[in-house]
Amino acid sequence: MNQQIRNIMTQNVATVTDTQSIQEAAAIMSQKNIGSLPVVDHTGQMVGMITDRDITLRSTAQGENAQTPVSQVMTAQQIVQADPGMDAQQAAQLMAQQQVRRLPVVENGQIVGMVALGDLATDNQKDGADQALSTISAPSAPQK
Fold first, then answer.
1. Among the listed residues 96, 89, 100, the one whose alpha carbon sits nearest the alpha carbon of residue 128
2. How many Cα atoms are found within 13 Å in the side-chain-facing hemisphere of 73?
3. Among 19, 68, 109, 115, whose CB has the most other CB atoms within 10 angstroms?
4. Structural domains in the chain?
5. Prediction pTM value
6. CA dihedral for 107, 18, 24, 53, sign (positive or negative)
7. 111: nearest Cα among 35, 11, 19, 5
8. Could you report the per-residue pLDDT of 85-136, keeping only the tens digit for each?
9. CB–CB of 101/136 below 8 Å?
């Protein structure tokens, strides 16, 4: 039987608000040894995601100030999310389709967990994780 995401997700997820600086976001990532953070507004509703890559390419490479608000660098549209009731196979398929390695788990607009490809790589979910990794790692456009 396939496990629900709620049983394998990481709980107590670190977040950042959309008004905090990218320097603060980077410091949280460094402290927690993670590469992405869900972005929430003042009510706790998830409004985006920010990654270490976002900070590098959308701010540092553009000469932005370290005090630039997260809202100017984050990905805010079409955030791929999981529901805690989703099963692990569905999550693996979603990750493969969207070519993402981490899924925020959202319930009623609130972040309740995070599931990573590594979370799916348990004995019971190994086939789905292997398939997802293969698809995620494939180039999105043919190489010439």
1. 89
2. 34
3. 115
4. 5-137 (3.10.580.10)
5. 0.79
6. positive
7. 11
8. 999 999 999 999 998 889 999 999 899 999 998 888 764 554 544 555 455 4
9. yes
